[in-house]
Specification:
Pfam families: Abhydrolase_3
Number of helices: 9
Number of strands: 8
Number of domains: 1
Oligomer: single chain
Order of helices and strands: HHEEEHEHEHEHHEHEH
Family: Belongs to the 'GDXG' lipolytic enzyme family.
Helix content: 25-40%
Keywords: Hydrolase
CATH topology: Rossmann fold
InterPro entries: AB_hydrolase_3, AB_hydrolase_fold, GDXG_lipolytic_enzyme, Lipase_GDXG_HIS_AS, Lipase_GDXG_put_SER_AS
GO molecular function: triacylglycerol lipase activity
Largest sheet: 8 strands, mixed
CATH class: Alpha Beta
Shape: globular
C-alpha cells in the first residue's frame, strides 16, 4: 500500500475520520464547554495507543512542574526532546500523549520529557508557556546540551513550541537543535483562509468552538501577541523546523503560512501536508498506518538533527 503524503487515505483512516466527525466534532467541538472537552480528550485517548512496547515511563518534577520521562528501555543517549502536548490549552496531559511520545522516543532513540503544564481557564496565558520555559531552562542548567535537544508538540502544543522558541530569544537562552510541530495552531486571530474553506471538510475541529478555547486561554489579550500567535513574531534565528498537517484541517493555513514566514527569514523548514489526515492523526499509530509512517518521518528528522 502506498502511504505517501499524496496517497489516498487508508480504510482505517476513513473509519477514524467518520468516528471523529460524529462522536467528537458534532457532539463536543460544535458547542464546547471545558469539562466536555476534557472528557472528550480522555475518551479519544482511549482509542489512541497508550505507552508502546519497549518504552519506559517515569514521573519526575522539574522546576516545580510535574513531568513524565519516556525513553526506550535500557537506552543510554544524549538525545533529548521536550514535548508539549495538545488539548486546546484546556485539556490533555502526559498520560493522554504517552502513545505518540513513546513512539517518537523509540523511533528517534531519544529521552523525551512531557510537562504537565498548567491549563486554562484555571491558569490562562502565560502559565503554560511559563511552565514550558522553566522546564527547558532547567534541562539546560542540568547539563542537557542544546545541540542534542529538540522541542516538539501537537496542536496547542505546536503553538507552545513556537512561542517557547520566541521566549528563548527574549530571554537570551540557547536555542534547541530542532523543532517539530504537528497541526500547530499559530494564529489565534483565525485569519487563515482554511478556517472557512475547510470548515466542513475537517473531521474533528469545529470552527464555532475556537472562540471558547481561545477565550479561556487568552481572554482580554491582544491575539496578535507573538507569544499567543507565533505566526506574527520575529522568527529569525529559530532552529530547523519540521511541520506536519492534514490537508482537510481548518489549521492547514496556519501550517502553510508558518512555513512561508520561517523561510522568509532564512529558517530551514520542511512542511508535509498529508492527504485527508485528521487533526493530529499521528496519535493513532495503533489504528491507522499513516500515523506510523508520519511518526517514522518525525523520528528520522529528530535523529538527524540531534546527532
Amino acid at each position: 500500500m502506498n502511504l505517501g503524503i499524496d496517497a489516498g487515505a487508508s480504510a482505517q483512516a476513513m473509519l477514524l475520520r467518520l468516528f471523529m466527525r460524529h462522536a467528537v466534532k458534532a457532539r463536543v467541538h460544535a458547542k464546547p464547554d471545558i469539562p466536555k472537552i476534557r472528557r472528550s480528550m480522555e475518551r479519544v485517548a482511549r482509542f489512541a495507543p497508550d505507552k508502546p512496547r519497549g518504552v519506559a515511563v517515569r514521573k519526575d518534577v522539574i522546576a516545580g512542574v510535574d513531568v513524565e520521562w519516556s525513553a526506550p528501555t535500557g537506552l543510554t543517549t544524549e538525545r533529548h526532546v521536550l514535548y508539549l502536548h495538545g488539548g486546546a490549552f484546556v485539556s490533555g496531559s502526559p498520560r493522554t500523549h504517552r502513545g505518540i511520545v513513546g513512539r517518537i522516543a523509540r523511533g528517534a532513540g531519544a529521552r523525551i520529557v512531557t510537562p504537565d503544564y498548567r491549563l486554562a481557564p484555571e491558569h490562562p496565558f502565560p502559565a503554560g508557556l511559563e511552565d514550558a520555559t522553566a522546564v527547558y531552562r532547567a534541562m539546560i542548567e542540568s547539563g542537557v546540551r542544546p545541540d542534542r535537544l529538540a522541542v516538539a508538540g501537537d496542536s496547542a502544543g505546536g503553538n507552545l513550541v513556537f512561542a517557547l522558541l520566541l521566549k528563548l530569544k527574549q530571554e537570551d537562552l540557547p536555542m534547541p537543535a530542532a523543532a517539530v510541530a504537528m497541526s500547530p495552531f499559530v494564529d489565534m486571530t483565525g485569519s487563515g483562509e482554511s478556517m472557512k474553506t475547510n470548515a466542513e471538510l475537517d473531521p474533528l475541529l469545529h470552527i464555532d468552538g475556537l472562540p471558547s478555547v481561545v477565550g479561556a486561554y487568552a481572554e482580554g489579550r491582544d491575539l496578535r501577541d507573538p507569544l499567543l500567535s507565533p505566526l506574527f513574531g520575529d522568527l529569525a534565528g529559530l532552529p530547523p523546523c519540521f511541520i506536519q498537517c492534514g490537508s482537510d484541517e481548518i489549521l492547514l493555513d496556519d501550517a502553510v503560512r508558518m512555513k512561508a514566514a520561517l523561510e522568509a527569514v532564512g529558517v530551514t523548514v520542511e512542511l508535509e501536508v498529508w492527504n485527508r489526515m485528521p487533526h493530529v492523526w499521528q496519535a493513532f499509530a495503533r489504528l491507522i498506518p499513516e500515523a506510523s509512517v508520519a511518526i517514522e518521518r518525525i523520528a528520522r528528522f529528530l535523529a538527524a538533527r540531534l546527532g
